[in-house]
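From the pipeline queue, job 12 of 40. The input is one protein chain; the requested action is below.

Action: predict structure.
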Amino acid sequence: MKVRIAMLVVATTVLSAACSDIEVVSETTTVTEAPAETATTVADDADSVATTLAPEITTTTESTTTSTTTTVPVTTTTVLDIACIKTTTCQYANLVGVDFSRLKLDFIDFSVAQLAGASFVGANLSNSVFIRTDLSAVNFEGATLKNVDFTAAVMVAASFKGANLEGAVLCDVDLTQVLDLTKEQLEKVKKFKAKGKVYCP
């Protein structure tokens, strides 16, 4: 009988080590008649095996949960790329929610960057490029946007209150959801026309 018990304990240990991601949950039985001995019982269930040591030793069962992996789309950045400002090339950069207020950021290429929720209050962005950039809810209040190229940029809820748009390019841009853009500001915007049609260079 002791040989069978020992073989059962060894088999259970080998199976647990071999299949580390499989959990064997079992009912435990405490032997009170012989406190110093080790007892092993086989439960009524064919799938359940229990091993209990002396009563003063408690047995803990760790539960294993199955985790599902989610595939994240490949992006060019995983953190904010604020350092790109030093090189003046911020194409494809992740700059969501960054505060650029009152900074001199002229001649910087923000093409196809993620700038949703960023703030450019009072900033100088002269001659910068925002081609196909996400500018959702960006605050350009009081910013200098001379000769800035906004071609095909997304400007949902972007605010241009008091911004200087002299010579700015607004091609393929939906201005219906832009905030605080006045007729006077639009009169200073550069227009590209060919045979009466507006086009983007």
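Job complete. The CA atoms of residues 149 and 169 lie 5 Å apart.
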